[in-house]
Design brief:
about 100 residues, mainly beta, 3-stranded antiparallel beta sheet, two-stranded antiparallel ribbon, globular
Amino acid sequence: MSTENKAPESVTAAAEAASYPVAPGYRVNVRSGPGTKYPVVRTLAAGAWVSIHCQTPGEWVSGPYGTTSIWDNIGNGQFVSDAYVNTGRDGYVTYRCS
């Protein structure tokens, strides 16, 4: 595995398995790829929590947690902008998707 696909040094196995809250009061669209031009595959209910399998760069999005190009993979073919997920960090919290 290349260094580019590794999680930050501070990421632990426990953090990788963690769930993160979606911004309160938002129903977030889950898309088939890392951008708003990808089709919506489902919508997360307000108050939802997600497990992040991996993260990938994509379209820049502004949301309640800032402006970012990071997209969180929450399932097979399911991506949400990290701008709507409270990971507690501005950068990557787990491995990049390969």
